[in-house]
Amino acid sequence: MALSGITTVLLDLDGVLYVEEEPIPGALEAVEELRARGLRLRFVTNTTSRSRAQVASRLARLGFPLPADNVLTPAALAVRRCGVVGHKRVRLLVAPALREDLAGLAEAPAGEQPDAIILGDLGEGFTYERLNQAFRAMEAGAELIALQRNRFWRRTDGLAMDVGAYVAALEYATGRPATVVGKPEPAFFAAALADAHGDAGHAVMVGDDIEADVGGALAAGLAGVLVRTGKYRPGAEDRSGVIPTAVIDSIADLPALLAG
Predict the structure, then answer these.
(1) ∠ at Cα 80 (79, 81), nearest 5°?
(2) Torsion 184-97-162-104 (CA) sign
(3) For position 9, what pLDDT does the model report?
(4) What is the DSSP string of 122-159?
(5) Which GO molecular-function terms appear in the entry (predicted)?
């Protein structure tokens, strides 16, 4: 099956271009071929452990040199959300590296009730005490702004639980839904398309997450291509109920898919 008329390609990173420090075989060549065809490329990720500049630096180190402004992460949308609703003070529950992307937000002093909790990847820092502090702040009225709610991701040593489990725990404890700003939210895809000057009807999202990448893209009006690398597990499509526009073995097969 070939996809025709595509002018904009959104590419997930971890699991699609690389797994930790190893590029997916054929990924470098595929990206170069797509660029050579004049397609608008944007690199979109739900990672909340690194700043946008660090993500771009890592891509360059792995052989994918590109400007940092070609990378879209959820942090910018969290800042936008706080501005829209008027949050003055927030509590940041994010990795230290991500704070530079959230520098536009004022942090509530210790002991002061925040207007919002910004929740990202804390890794080993996800402790009961931190989650309980977030729970108490939410009970007192703070909005939970989740940078993403992925279920799991793939490390070199296997699958690892992601931020979504902690978001779900806080939602369950408080009975209040989080505001999610990363994939699969339509606003995330809209921001990426606006940045690339593309439109949904001529755009495709390529990812290894059937729900966040493919399901989110389809709901936002884009085509959604699932790769069988990264966190992909056989039968993921059937279990999720999401029907991808196409399924390919890896990004190495993408140029041929878009050749129509």
Answers:
(1) 90
(2) negative
(3) 97
(4) -GGG--HHHHHHHHHHHHTT-EEEES---SEEEETTEE
(5) hydrolase activity
Residue type, 140: A
Distance CA 224, CA 231 (A): 16
Give yes or no: residues 40 and 130 share one domain: no
User: Block means of pLDDT (10 residues each) for the chain, length 260 residues?
Assistant: 85 93 95 95 90 91 88 91 95 93 92 96 90 97 94 82 93 97 93 94 96 95 96 83 94 92
Same domain, 17 and 32: yes
CATH at 60: 3.40.50.1000
Amino acid at 176: R
Alpha carbons 97 and 247: distance in angstroms, whole number: 34
Question: What is the number of structural domains in the chain?
Answer: 2
Residue 238 lies in a domain: yes
The CB-side HSE value for 71 (13 A sphere, CA atoms) comes to 25
- Quote the domain boundaries for residue 234: 8-73+183-257
Same-domain pairing of 92 and 167? yes
